[in-house]
Design a protein that fits this description.
The chain is mainly beta. It has one helix at residues 107-115; strands spanning 32-34, 37-43, 59-65, 70-72, 79-81, 84-88, 90-91, 97-99, 127-138, 141-148. 6% of the residues lie in helices and 35% in strands.
């Protein structure tokens, strides 16, 4: 510790201090929101064909998201919570985006049907309900997420 003073402290004198409350995302379960964004983007995937270098081609997905439901912190440490979901889109073996699946068992088709959207382009502005779910992250720990009910 250069250029700083060290002070010896008796740790038995330390007092308990309440830290920040954990974020309760469960409170947003069944909240109705208006879809703010529905955009096509590419994400890494281990399930797509490999390119010439042996790396998996990124997967095209439709990312659907709600407005910010909760913000914690300020500035660079600010964290925003919103409901979001990724739906796989259809692409060729080279990774060129072709369109969206029309199979009745497709999650995107089910979602669009529930919201009364004839195409992904009609999702923005539609009302949807938020679903809270927990995912096991190992060592007996879970993490909460927000997505959409359909």
């Amino acid at each position: 510790m250069e250029n700083s003073e060290q002070t010896k402290i008796d740790i038995s004198s330390l007092k308990p201090m309440k830290s920040g409350e954990p974020v309760d995302l469960k409170r947003f379960h069944n909240t109705q929101v208006v879809i703010e964004n529905a955009d096509a983007m590419q994400v890494p995937s281990g399930f797509t064909p490999k390119d010439a270098s042996g790396k998996n081609i990124p997967q095209w997905v439709l990312k659907v998201s709600s407005p910010v439901l909760l913000s914690v912190g300020d500035g660079e440490s600010k964290i925003e919570f919103r409901a979001s979901e990724l739906f796989n889109l259809t692409q060729d073996k080279e990774g060129k985006l072709l369109g969206y699946p029309t199979n009745k068992d497709s999650n995107l088709v089910k979602f669009m049907k529930d919201l009364g959207a004839a195409s992904p382009g009609e999702l923005k502005g539609k009302k949807a309900f938020v679903k809270f779910y927990e995912k096991d992250v190992g060592e007996g720990q879970t993490r909460g997420y927000l997505k959409f009910k359909y």
